[in-house]
Amino acid sequence: MRRLLLWSLAVAVLVVLLLCAEMVLRFGPWEIEPALRLDYETFVAVKVDHKGAFRYIYMRDNDLFWKGRPDTKWTGRVGHDIPAEMNSHGFRQREFSLAKPASTLRIACLGDSRTFGLGVWEKETYPRQLEGLLRARHPGHTEIEVLNLGVMGYSMFQGWISLNINAPLMQPDVVTFAFGFNDMMPAKHPDSVYYENGHSGLGKLRQFLCKSKLFVVYEMLVLRVTRELTKKPEPHVLKGQEDMYEEIGCAQIGGELKIENRRVSDDQYEELLVKAIDFCKSRSILPIVISIPQRSLHKPYLQAPKYHELMNRVCDKCGVKVIDLLPACMECINSGPEEEISERVEQLLLGVCHPAPHGHSLIAEEIAKQLESLGVLPQ
């Protein structure tokens, strides 16, 4: 009997201590957020100034892995100190109603940080420029609205999930897809595996436990220790800075890198793109696929993205034309003296793959041309 009382007392003390720890973590002067994804938790660890504290611009989501945190403010990177404000829906976009207003042509731009506009002002992003361009060219047309639904770090897998979530709510007439760079990134497991695990019984339990700040701290510590103790795989795929730069834009890490899995494999990318196009067509939504070039170390200093040929193959089969930005970009960089090519490349791209303001202008122009050629807008 005495032993039972001692055990009961010990359990009660432990519960009280855990509750006290939870209260301290929950109401203390710090922000504690769950990792966005097990092997990707630092990929979008961008801090924002919110009520005097640093917080992530994104929050965990069981379907999308992460999504924009509503009504936050972020100071950018990539060589620029540019603020980015998220609206009440968690997008870098002015406020808009989820339900499409009557007599409105609504274009939804799905994509990653290149659509989000990493390193440029919101007014310089191609969705915003496209809206201004179409309204100026077609003043007598119905109201034109272009939504920037780009999220940093998103893959085609997340784009597919986002399409399923947002299209029924927002009822767009046109959807543009600009994915591919994050898809080829090395990952412990593909995005699809994390999605399946997150919707398993254990995954749902973990999602529920993440409501506890104490569990979040425990999880973060376990992740850190596991990452340190995990044996690094023997590298054999990418060797040296040049291969890494040409493949995944990571020249700074040098050395060698083994890629066991990509976030989205070639086969998965093809399957998801077909599903996205069929989804749009079944709902009378016009799908537009965009191929944005990335930088190369070799002349002509630009190259098509890894999934470019795959995009073309899928879109040919589905009767959709790919907007290939490489020809327009090449025309731009070849428009002056050869010794100034590097400067003209800088006018198009920030870093490896993010469009500069002029790059965003080219994308907006090419989308506008395709919309006009397809009769979506009057000539």
Mean pLDDT: 81
Q: Compute the CA-based radius of gyration.
A: 23 Å
The CATH class of the domain at 110-139 and 152-185 and 265-379 turns out to be Alpha Beta
The percent of residues in helical segments reads 40-55%
Q: Provide the CATH superfamily of the domain at 110-139 and 152-185 and 265-379.
A: SGNH hydrolase
Say what the CATH topology of the domain at 110-139 and 152-185 and 265-379 is: Rossmann fold
How much strand content do the residues show? Answer: 15-25%
Q: What is the first-to-last residue Cα distance?
A: 89 Å
Low-confidence region ranges: 38-54, 233-240
Q: Specify the structural class.
A: alpha/beta
Give the tally of β-strands: 17
Order of helices and strands: HEEEEEEEHHEHEHHHEHEHEEEHEHHEEH
Q: Treating each run of at least 4 consecutive H or I residues as one helix, how many helices? A: 13
Strand order of the largest sheet: 8-7-9-12-15
Oligomer state of the chains in this structure = single chain
